[in-house]
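Slide 14.
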Amino acid sequence: PSLVESEESSLIFQLPTTGYSDVIFSFAAKRTSNGQRELLIDYATDCEKWTTEGIGDDPFEMFEAYRMVSVDFTEIEETNDNANFCVRIRFGGDQEILSGTSGNVRINNVLLTAGNLPDTSEPPVVNLPQQVKLFQNYPNPFNPTTIISFWMVEPGMASLRVFDITGRVVATLVNQVMPEGRHDFTFDAGGLSSGLYIYHLRVGNETMTRKMLLVR
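Slide 15: predicted structure.
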């Protein structure tokens, strides 16, 4: 994502999706105690004519701790394979938004996810991992749930656990024999406090870890 314009009450991101489809735009946002309480998101397939069609008209509520905001464009065909796709985030200055004339809104971890367009000229080549692989969780940062995935090249015993920074086990997502292929697990941190967490995978004699951030 590329920030192309910043005004007093809005941010505009150019998000070229050339060669991609099923677009999802995500970011973490929070406000100060006297910052704007709501924001509006709209988009343009030519970076000029803005609309909210297909993504809802309701403002997104802001909080004083970071929350993930995710806007799903997968049902809007015009956002696929589009070099001029733009998204605008507006803060205040409109009748639709709850009034607030001072304070700050913070945006972090701006992310655009999409899938590859199929190649119709020849059968697609699927490049599968040739060894055990632990993927980065999504979304990250998250609140309160996130998806943790790993890949196994053959059946075997797998253990996937989540630790806090003190080394305490806070969740065991799997501890059993698993078939080969990709496995996705939802980690729900509803009862945990904000902070850094580590997830650890053991498959046979192989071990690997990754970090993730819970924000509230």
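Speaker note: The chain is about 0% helix and 50% strand.
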